Amino acid sequence: MTGNWGRWGVDDEAGALNLVTPEVTRRALGLVRSGRTLSLTQPLGPATPGPPHRNPPSRFMDRGAGDYVLGARTPGGFRFAEDTVQFATHSGTHLDALAHAWSGDELYNGHPQAGTRSTRGAARLGADKLVPVLTRGILVDAVAAAGGPLPPSAPVGVGDLERGIREAGVTVEPGDAVLVRTGWIESHGAAGDYFADEPGITEDAARWLAEHDVAVVGADNYAVEQQSATPGFPAHLVLLHQHGVPLLENVVLAELAGALADQGRSTFALLLAPIPLVGSTGSPVAPVAVL
Amino acid sequence: MTGNWGRWGVDDEAGALNLVTPEVTRRALGLVRSGRTLSLTQPLGPATPGPPHRNPPSRFMDRGAGDYVLGARTPGGFRFAEDTVQFATHSGTHLDALAHAWSGDELYNGHPQAGTRSTRGAARLGADKLVPVLTRGILVDAVAAAGGPLPPSAPVGVGDLERGIREAGVTVEPGDAVLVRTGWIESHGAAGDYFADEPGITEDAARWLAEHDVAVVGADNYAVEQQSATPGFPAHLVLLHQHGVPLLENVVLAELAGALADQGRSTFALLLAPIPLVGSTGSPVAPVAVL
Amino acid sequence: MTGNWGRWGVDDEAGALNLVTPEVTRRALGLVRSGRTLSLTQPLGPATPGPPHRNPPSRFMDRGAGDYVLGARTPGGFRFAEDTVQFATHSGTHLDALAHAWSGDELYNGHPQAGTRSTRGAARLGADKLVPVLTRGILVDAVAAAGGPLPPSAPVGVGDLERGIREAGVTVEPGDAVLVRTGWIESHGAAGDYFADEPGITEDAARWLAEHDVAVVGADNYAVEQQSATPGFPAHLVLLHQHGVPLLENVVLAELAGALADQGRSTFALLLAPIPLVGSTGSPVAPVAVL
Amino acid sequence: MTGNWGRWGVDDEAGALNLVTPEVTRRALGLVRSGRTLSLTQPLGPATPGPPHRNPPSRFMDRGAGDYVLGARTPGGFRFAEDTVQFATHSGTHLDALAHAWSGDELYNGHPQAGTRSTRGAARLGADKLVPVLTRGILVDAVAAAGGPLPPSAPVGVGDLERGIREAGVTVEPGDAVLVRTGWIESHGAAGDYFADEPGITEDAARWLAEHDVAVVGADNYAVEQQSATPGFPAHLVLLHQHGVPLLENVVLAELAGALADQGRSTFALLLAPIPLVGSTGSPVAPVAVL
C-alpha cells in the first residue's frame, strides 16, 4: 500500500496530524497579526441542513425555566437549565476521523476493519484519536479565482491548487491545512440540493495534497471532493485511507476569505480542537482562524 | 443588579468573553514557547463518568464494517462508517453557557428566563452564543500548594487564588482564563463519588475573579465551586448570572501542571473552541493549552 | 367544569376508560365470530410518516450479525442482535394520554398542569395511566357513506355518527370505542400533506360521543378531528380534557372495514394494550380487532 | 435443521405464532369468566431496571405546561404536551422477535444473518413481523409449587412443566402460551442483581414446550431460561432459532397467579399486541390476561 502506512509506526492512529509538530505550530502562530479570532463553523442544531437519509440533530431540554415557574425548588435561589443533544457525527462542520472511510479489509495503516463495529464503535482511528492541532492554514479561494461560486460538479484540480497556493506567495509545507473555498455552502447551503453534485477537489488534487504532506484538507461543501456521476469518493480514499489525512467538511469560509483578501494574504493560523468522541467516526469541530 | 449587566449593551449575550479582545489574544500568543499543544479534555463517550440522575453518553453505529462483510455495496471500492452520538451537554469536559444558571426571573444581562423552555431550548445565552476564545490561561495549582489533591468540600478561597497567582509572577488581566487544579478528578474521578462534595472555589473567590475581569473560570471538578452541606451553587450565580463568565468543568489538569512546573511558570496560551450547539445550555469543548 | 370531572373521584386518572367494566368486556367478546385477529396499526419505524416539526422514529442497532462475522464471541454458539429505538410518542398509531391536551391551568379532572413538566414528564394522566381495554368497537365508515375518502377538512358531524351507528343496528353503550373511517390515511397517507387539513369529527360530534359515554374515539387520520382554518383542537378539549376520553390516531381501517362489510356488521371486539410509558403524553399501540 | 424450519413455507417469518389460528383464539376466549382484564406489564420509563451494559429508557418532554406559563400561544385555548422516548427494545416487559437470537449463519427458517445489520435493522424476522395473538395462556406457577420464589439459577425442568400443567387440569395444545412464574421479579426485581443468575426453564424444558407446539413462552425474569455458569442461552436457541417461538420477558405474574388461584384454575385468555417496530429485534408489549 502506498501512502503513509507505516510511516509513523505500525500502531499509529494519528496519521498526518503527526506532521503538526511544535515547530509547525510556532511557525503558524508567527502569522498572527491582529489577534482577531474568526469562527469557521456552522451552528449545530435542529436546523442544521443534512442529507435526506439522516435525521437532523435533536435537542431535548431536560430542565428549563418552565420547571421553576411550575414549582421546582430553588435551593439558595439557584435555577438551572440543562439539555441533551443527539446528532450524527458527520453533521454540520466536522472532521472525518480516519476510521470513517476505507476500502478492502483494512483501514488506514493496516488496522483491521473488524475494529469498526456496532458494539465497539471504531476501536481504532476513531474521533478520540483526533488530536487538536494548531497549524498554518492556506485558503485556496476558487470562488475568487472563478469570479463566483463554482457550479455543480465543478472540479478543483491540481492546477487550481497550484495556482491558488502560488498566488498566496507560499509553498505547501508539511503539516499545513489546506482549505478550499468552492462557494457551495454560499450558493446551495439553504437550498435542498446541497447534498449532491457538489464542486470539489479531484482525486489528483487529493493526491497532490497528500504528497505535499498536508495534514488536513477542508472545504465549504459536504464531502470536500467533487461529486459527479462517477460513483464513490476517491479523494476520501486517497486522503483518509492511504495517507491518514482527516477531512474537514461544511466549513464556513466567506468571511475568512474576505478578511484575508483585505489583508492581502491567504495564510493564517488555524486551530482545530475536535471533541474526542470515543469510537466515533467523526467529530463536530469549531475551526478557529486567528488573524 | 450588580455585576456586568448592561456593560456590553442591553442585548449582549457574550458576557465576559467580550473581554478577550484581539489584543488579549496577541498577548496570550506571546506566551508560546515550544509550540507544544496539550489537550485538557476527557474523552467523551459511554464510559465518561456522570452524576446518577443522568444517562451516560451514547454512541450508535449507523454503519460499520459489518455491513460490508454482510454484503453492502462498495461503489468505487468505497466503504464508510458513520455514527450518531447523544449526550447531556454538561457531560465530560464542557463549558457552561450563560443560559445554564440564574436566579429570579432573569438570566444574565436581564434576558427573560421565558426564553429558556422546551420548545426553544435557550433562545438567548445558549451554547451557540459561546464565541471561541484564545486567551491567557493562569493555572492555580492548589494540589501543589497543598501537597496533594484537596479533600472533599475543601475551599479554594480568595487567599488561595491570590497566593497562586502571585507565585505565578503575574497579576490577573481582563480576559484571562483562570483554571484551578483541585486534584478532584485525579483522586475521585474513577470512583463513584466524584459527583458530590467536591473541593472548589468559594463564593468570595468567584466574586474576586469576576471583579478582576476574568473571562473564563475552570477547574478539574464537576462544578468548579466548593460543594458542602450548604445548598445551591453561589459561585455559579456570581460568575454565570451576575458577571456573564462561563464555567469550564471537568478539565484535565495534571499533565499541564507538570509541564508548566517543568518550565517554571503558571501561564500559557489557552484556546477554547466550543461547539455552537443551538439553544443548548452547555457545550463539550476540548480546551487546548499551547506551551 | 362540565364533563366527567369528579365522576370517578377527585384523584381519578383513568377517565372514560373506567367505563370499560368487566361486563362491557364480556359483552364485547360475545361479538367474536371466527376468532380472526386483525391488526389496525401502522408499522413504527424510520419510514413512518410524521409532521414536519418532528424527527421520524429512529432505530439504532446496538449489535447485529456484522459483529459476529467480525469476530464477536459466541458463547455456546449463541449470537444475538439488539437495538434501541427512539420516537415521539405521538408517532404512528397511538393513543393520546389524558395529559396530552388541556386548556387553562388544569388537566382533566382538575389535576394541575404543573405536574406536566420537563423534569417529571406527566406526573398525572400520563401514558402509564392508560389501562388496557377490551371493549366493543363500532366502526363508523364515512368512506362507505360518501362513496370514497373524504376530502380535506370535511366534517364528520353528529348526523354522520348517528346515521353510521343506526345503520350498524346498534346504539352506543357506555364503554364503547367508536372508530371513524375518513379515508385520510388511504388517500393522503403516502403524500406529503397528510399532516394538515384532515377531515374528521366536529366539536359537536365529539360532544355527542362524550355524552354517550364512549370510552375511546379513534380515526384513520392524525388528530381525529376535522382540521380547517379555525385554530385549535376543540374536539381534543371536549374529549381528552373535559371527559377524559383518550384519542386513538393514525388507525389503519380499510381492511377492517372490508371484513366487517363482508360480515354485514359494524361492531367487533377491540383490544387496546398501550405501553405504559411512564410520564409520557401518549403511547404507541397496536389495536387489535377480533372478528 | 430440526425444529420448525420450512413448516410454514420457506419465506415464513411468523414462526410459531402461525399456530394461533382463529379457532385457537375462539377457544381461548371461551375461557373468559368475569371479563376482568389484568395487565402483566412493568411500566416502561427511566426507572425501569436494566442490565449494566444498557442505558435505562429516556423520556424527553418536547413541550409541557412550562412552555405555556412562559408565554407559548394557545390557539383556541388549546394547550398540549408531547414527548420523545428512547429505549433499548429489550427493556421492561417485551417480546423477543425471531431476529433476536440465532447460531451459525442463519436465523430461524434459514433466513440469512446478513439481513440483520446496522443500516437495515433486522430485514427479516424483526419486531414488525410479530403478529398480535389472542390465545390460551397457561400459568405454570413454580413459586406456588416451591412455596416461595425460586433461588438463583434454579431450574424449571420438564417435570416441573408437566406437573404444573397436569395440575392445571389441561394438556398443552398447539398455539398455547406458557408463562412460568419463578418469583424472580418479585424477589430480585428491586435489587441490583436481577440481571444475573436467574432461575428459569432448562434447555430440555424449552424443547418440550417447542415439541408441544407452544406459540409463546414467557416468564417473570429477564431471559426466561435458567442462568448459571454454563455460557450461552440454549433455550433461546431451541425456541427462537429452531422453532420460531418468541419469548416474553420481564412479565409481572404475581397478581395473575393470585387471581387464578382464587378461581381454582391456571388457564386464561391472553392477548399480546406488540408494537410493530420495523427492523427491531424486540418489542415492548403490555400482555393482557382476560379472566
TrEMBL record, chains A, B, C, D:
GO terms for molecular function: arylformamidase activity. Residues 46-55 have a biased composition (Pro residues). One of its GO terms (biological process) is L-tryptophan catabolic process to kynurenine. Residues 37-59 are annotated as: Disordered. Coiled coil: none annotated. This is Kynurenine formamidase. It comes from Klenkia brasiliensis.
